[in-house]
Design brief:
The protein is α+β, with helices and mostly antiparallel strands. It has 14 helices and 37 strands.
Length: 687
């Protein structure tokens, strides 16, 4: 009688599998693999080796708290000669004495998550079972059969493997790139992402169904969109937009997702205070990339928040141009969301590719604060019947803005406006380069094109198709040079009269600080010209001087000032409105890297900044982090005031653990100068 086959140990081949599955950073202590692609195992038996003629080997995998074969969360499969593509499979690669090398593979549609792998051996009437270990299964953008497959390697590198990037902020006419440390492969982040899935209300309601549906990136994307905000659940971030962040951390302080996700986990999954749109988007990008879904952060400038889905943002203004009444529907200076790449088997063909997902809690979708995924292609085509939340995203990039001026007798007069175009310069980081890519064309056809008219007709956006009334008068806000925080500067109302008649007008020019979501602060500059004579076919430029002393105490951390010009022609009862958002630049953070740039060798980052203000800076601190360069965030506080014009300099130790290109991200805070960002690319060679 043949003796029983007894397993001594199982080697999960962490190094080989980590390299082959692009999970090396995650495979330090446990196995992390991608679906639809074989991974290696080596079985060491006691006594005798495996004999195909007498031994049966049956493997089983289970995931979730209530695994079942019906829900694809449990599978049993035998060792065979061939690997099936659409099922769990195991095959022999090599055998030497009592060492058996195997290949296992998960189907390309298997649910992602934490699995337990077991082995049952049977020889004749004898049998034993062994737990071989646990592994985590991720989406696989390298597998053509996976719903998240991308065919360009540089895009896979950028949208799944790259741990740092940029988020675009500022204004449509001055786009600012803010560095961000996504850090999806940093210690503990994968576990936090799986914890986030296990705390979502759908899992708590029906764990078996939820785990089963984790085979779909559409489903997982929607869950992540809901769980990054805490509005309906134990989600990660609490949003706040009122500039009162004393009991938490200002949204503008953050420089990466890792610190936010670790705080959430370490505080018992209690909400982290506070986030705004780019923070929500960046954290969602980290989670989705970590789980294997190709994802990028996008920014839409002049983004409409349309609550009633009429594709119209209407402002009622008084005779000074100030907005009256309800301010719930606003044009945000910019708004960030993410796009994830996936097929859409739930939709008609042609809607695969980039899908917009928005974790910022704005409007409810099917009773929950989440948004998407909606195909970007559907937005471009004006197909608003498409799942999920197409009307809301369409309005963000296409809504029409109408300004009404309320007369003293209560009647309304429509204002001509040439400056408020919604959905401008939609931006994301270039693949493989630290530059901005303009992707507006993926959301919109060229203005005035037949395709645009067709899309608007399909979306029933009929107000956009009405010909705009031309008055022959135009006004634009122009800016001078050197708009740095701490300086005085000029802006100009530039008025043209293209008619053959004289016009006598009143001009009111006003500057107010503004948050990026359109909330106005105090006035910081104003000028009036009561009898402005505009000769036929002429142009005039009227200046407004804006002083630092007038904006220093009321500028928000968005660094934005809104300049509004209202031109009134009393004789014709006509109004012309122009607005422009001005971004004030922060000083530059300078970074020098000292030491030999090699793996496991200490480096020193010398970080400095010059105070651009005419007053001292108090409570100054530099914070640095970088995936693969620092284990955690490091903060250096400066005890002494930094005088006007003085340079402040600190040194921070780094320990690069991984070869390749990394980004050190820096934030500077003080009492009068906040959320100043800087970065340095560092290429680390082998030791």
């Amino acid at each position: 009688m043949t003796e029983e086959l007894v397993l001594e140990r199982c080697d999960l081949e962490l190094e080989t599998n980590g390299r082959d599955h692009h999970t090396a950073n995650l495979c330090q202590e446990r196995l992390v693999v991608r679906r639809g692609q074989p991974f290696q195992l080596t079985l060491h038996f006691e006594g005798r080796g495996y004999e195909a003629s007498v031994d049966n080997l049956t493997f089983s995998v289970v995931t979730g708290p209530a695994p079942s074969t019906e829900s694809w969360t449990k599978a049993r499969f035998q060792l065979s000669d061939t690997m099936e593509e659409c099922a769990w499979a195991a095959a022999v690669v090599n055998q030497q004495d009592n060492v058996l090398s195997l290949q296992l593979s998960a189907p390309a549609h298997a649910p992602i998550g934490l699995y337990r792998l077991s082995l049952e051996t049977s020889t004749g009437y004898q049998g034993s079972s062994f737990v071989l270990g646990h592994f985590i299964l991720l989406f696989n953008t390298w597998c053509p059969a996976d719903d998240v497959y991308l065919d360009l390697e540089e895009e896979r590198q950028e949208y799944v493997l790259t741990q740092q990037g940029f988020i675009y902020q500022g204004s449509a006419k001055f786009i600012k790139s803010t560095p961000w440390n996504f850090g999806q492969f940093e210690d503990g982040i994968l576990d936090i992402c799986l914890k986030l899935l296990d705390l979502n209300p759908k899992f708590l309601k029906n764990a078996s169904r939820d785990c089963s549906r984790r085979s779909s990136p559409v489903y997982v994307g929607r869950v992540v969109s809901a769980m990054v905000n805490c509005n309906d659940d134990q989600g990660v971030l609490l949003g706040r937009w009122d500039n009162n962040y004393g009991d938490g951390i200002s949204p503008t302080f953050w420089i990466g997702s890792v610190d936010i996700l670790r705080r959430w986990k370490n505080c018992g999954c209690q909400k982290v205070k506070y986030g705004q749109c780019w923070v929500f988007a960046a954290v969602a990008c980290t989670v989705l990339r970590c789980l294997g879904i190709p994802t990028r952060v996008v920014t839409n400038f002049n983004s409409a928040h349309d609550q009633n889905s009429n594709l119209l943002i209407e402002y009622v203004r008084d005779k000074f141009g100030e907005i009256q009444g309800d301010k719930s529907e606003m044009i945000w200076n910019f708004h960030c969301w993410v796009e994830s790449w996936m097929t859409r088997p739930d939709l008609q063909p042609g809607y695969e590719g980039w899908q917009a997902l928005d974790p910022t809690p704005q409007e409810k979708s099917e009773g929950t604060y989440c948004c998407g995924p909606v195909p970007v292609r559907a937005i471009k085509e004006g197909d608003l019947s498409t799942k999920y939340d197409a009307p809301f995203v369409f309005a963000e990039v296409n809504a029409d803005v109408v300004n009404w001026i309320q007369q003293e007798d209560g009647s309304m007069q429509k204002s001509a406006s040439h400056s408020q175009v919604v959905g401008l310069r939609i931006s994301t980081k270039c693949v493989g380069r630290d530059e901005r890519a303009d992707i507006t064309h993926t959301y919109k056809y060229p203005e005035g094109s037949p395709e645009e008219r067709e899309a608007f007709t399909r979306a029933n956006h009929l107000n956009k198709l009405v010909e705009k009334e031309e008055t022959g008068m135009a006004m634009r806000i122009r800016v001078g040079q050197g708009m740095n925080k701490g300086s005085d500067f000029d802006v100009f109302a530039y008025i043209t009269n293209d008619t053959s008649e004289d016009h006598t007008c009143h001009l009111l020019l006003c500057a107010r600080t503004v948050s990026y979501n359109g909330t106005l602060g105090p006035e910081c500059g104003t000028t009036q010209v009561l009898d402005l004579a505009l000769e036929p076919f002429s142009e005039k430029s009227i200046p407004l001087h804006i002083l630092y002393e007038n904006y220093c105490d009321c500028l928000t951390q968005s660094n934005l000032i809104k300049v509004r010009g209202l031109l009134t022609e009393p004789a014709a009862n006509r109004y012309l409105l122009a607005e422009r958002d001005i971004y004030l630049e922060n000083p530059e953070i300078k970074i020098r890297i000292l030491g030999e740039r090699k793996q496991n060798r200490k480096l020193v980052a010398e970080v400095s900044l010059q105070n651009p203000l005419t007053v001292p800076l108090l409570d100054c601190a530099f914070t640095v982090e970088g995936a693969g360069l620092t284990e955690e965030q490091k903060t250096v506080e400066i005890p002494d005031p930094v005088e006007a014009g003085e340079e402040v300099k600190v040194r921070v130790d780094l320990m690069p653990l991984h070869v390749g290109r990394h980004k050190l991200v820096v934030n500077f805070e003080s009492d009068k100068l906040k959320a100043v960002k800087g970065y340095q690319n560092i290429i680390i060679g082998p030791s």
